[in-house]
Write a structure and sequence with these properties.
By secondary structure, the protein is an alpha/beta fold. The chain contains twelve helices and eleven strands. It folds into two domains: 151 residues, Rossmann fold (3-Layer(aba) Sandwich); 167 residues, Aspartate/ornithine carbamoyltransferase (Rossmann fold). The strands form three sheets. The chain has a five-stranded parallel beta sheet with strand order 9-8-7-10-11. β1, α2 and β2 form a beta-alpha-beta unit. α1 crosses α12, α6 crosses α7 and α7 runs parallel beside α8. The chain is globular and about 55 Å long. Bound molecules: N~2~-acetyl-L-ornithine (AOR) and phosphoric acid mono(formamide)ester (CP). The site of phosphoric acid mono(formamide)ester has 9 residues, from α2.
Length: 331
């Protein structure tokens, strides 16, 4: 039995095969590959794209899905051995095993709570389901977002062809709230796996991603003869980029502090993706996972410009997830 938890568990050839199948599914959306199959989609956080594209995609393949919003199910405990005298009414040991008797696959979205990174970086909710469920698990975004990775790669390949040797600048952007690092971790993993040279642009060393993802990215890049570098210099990081990917994230060293102590300096609004910065690039494409605050993360001119891939990438979520579902439980 195979899961889709992180692309780190899938070889480059397997990722290429998923992308190839996604293109086939885009051309011929309907099939009976999931006939008789039932999927549970469990959301601990909001979603527009993931929720819709999974439900529609499962229907396209002849399967059925049930969406469970965590707010509408029982508060869940995931710690092994917990004395459950707090908020949680149910342990993942039961939740995962019971769901496994009803459905053929469980997909989970569970962002870190940004309370204790040393624990959250182990992805405890997803790990709890993997441990106790007896059906395949798909990660719909936890500390990585592998479905977004595939959608990003599909959009980049459609525009750039072979991605090997192309330069991707992954830029941090301002956002009023400290956001999850999952999509940034994932953009790094996906791009390096395909042999792109990644420049990670962020304001200072405090904004670095978790070293385990940096190390993984460096390893993947090295295997493809590509590179990962970090820059805190906006002009330097944009120069020569073929693709710009934007994401905001909160400082890992501030996780657990009260929100009023985690405010981002207004000065960092200058990291917005705008036409002046894009003019430094090699006529780069622009993308972002969405949802996106316009004129905070990127200007309207960039978002609505001819090199913006945001809608293509979002559409691709449907196609790539159908390929993943087919690979895990399809006939
Ligand atoms: C506003 C917010 O929390 N955005 C999330 C959503 C990512 C895509 N699902 C983030 O930027 O991490
Ligand atoms: N990009 C993405 O995962 O979108 P949603 O959060 O709307 O699902």
């Amino acid at each position: 039995m195979r899961h889709f938890l992180t692309t780190e568990d899938w070889t480059k050839q397997e990722i290429e095969a998923l992308l190839e199948d996604a293109r086939a599914l885009k051309a011929a959306p309907q099939s009976g590959r999931l006939r008789g199959k039932r999927c549970a989609l469990l959301f601990f956080n909001p979603s527009l794209r993931t929720r819709t594209s999974f439900q529609v995609g499962i229907a396209d393949l002849g399967g059925t899905s049930v969406v469970l919003d965590a707010a509408g199910t029982w508060p869940l405990e995931v710690e092994p051995g917990a004395i459950m005298d707090g908020e949680a009414e149910e342990h993942v040991a039961e939740a995962a095993r019971v769901l496994s008797t009803y459905v053929d696959l469980i997909a989970i979205r569970a962002f870190p709570k940004f309370e204790d990174w040393s624990r959250e970086r182990e992805d405890p909710i997803l790990a709890g389901f993997v441990k106790h469920a007896t059906v395949p698990i798909i990660n719909m975004e936890t500390i990585v977002h592998p479905c977004q990775e595939l959608a990003m790669l599909m959009a980049l390949q459609a525009r750039h062809g072979d991605l090997a040797g192309k330069n991707l600048t992954l830029t941090w952007t301002y956002h009023p709230k400290p956001l999850n690092t999952a999509v940034a971790n994932s953009a790094l993993l996906a791009a390096t796996k395909m042999g792109m040279n990644v420049t990670l642009l962020c304001p200072s060393a405090e904004y670095m991603l978790d070293e385990k993802f940096m190390e993984a990215g460096r390893g993947l890049a090295a295997a493809e003869g590509a590179s990962v570098r970090v820059s805190h210099d906006i002009e330097d990081a944009y120069r020569g980029a073929d693709a710009v990917y934007a994401k905001s994230w909160g400082r890992l060293d501030q996780i657990g502090l009260p929100m009023e102590e985690r405010l981002t300096s207004d000065d960092l609004r200058r990291f917005i993706v705008d036409e002046d910065k894009m003019a430094l690039t090699n006529i780069a494409t622009f993308s972002h996972c969405l949802p996106m605050r316009r004129n905070v993360k990127a200007t309207d001119a960039v978002v609505d410009g001819p090199n913006s891939l945001i809608i293509d990438e979002a559409e691709n979520r449907l196609h790539v997830q159908k390929a993943v579902l087919s690979a895990l439980i399809g006939s």
